[in-house]
Amino acid sequence: MEKVLFSYKGVKPLLVKLAILTAIQGVMIITQAYYLADAISSLFAGGLFHTVQKKLGIFLLALIIRKMVTVWKKKLSFHYSARTSAQFRGELLKKLF
Question: How far apart are CA 69 and CA 16, in angstroms?
Fold first, then answer.
């Protein structure tokens, strides 16, 4: 990462939020992998579908949470970049005119 990035106003709190959301996203990926693998192995072992519904439900919930976190991260980044680019555009126009 560029060192200049840290000089932008409000970037440090944004990076902290993104790091926390990325950690949550990582936990959701691991949860998805565990419960999907467990459900599939139970089905291959001869288990009935209704016995693995809870595992598949947890997998689906982790998938939904992960996708929501992804959308949230993109939204945070977009709002920050839009605000920062508008600020830089204004500063540039002041210098030019």
Answer: 14
The helix (run of H) or strand (run of E) holding residue 9 is: none
Q: What is the pLDDT of residues 1-25, one digit of tens each?
A: 677 777 778 889 999 999 999 999 9
Euclidean distance between the first and final Cα of the chain, in Å? Answer: 32
Q: From the centroid of its chain, how far is CA 79? A: 15
Nearest Cα to Cα of residue 32 among 61, 52, 53, 69: 61
CA distance readout (Å), 84 to 15, 28, 38, 81: 14, 31, 45, 5
Considering the entire predicted model, what is its pTM?
0.82
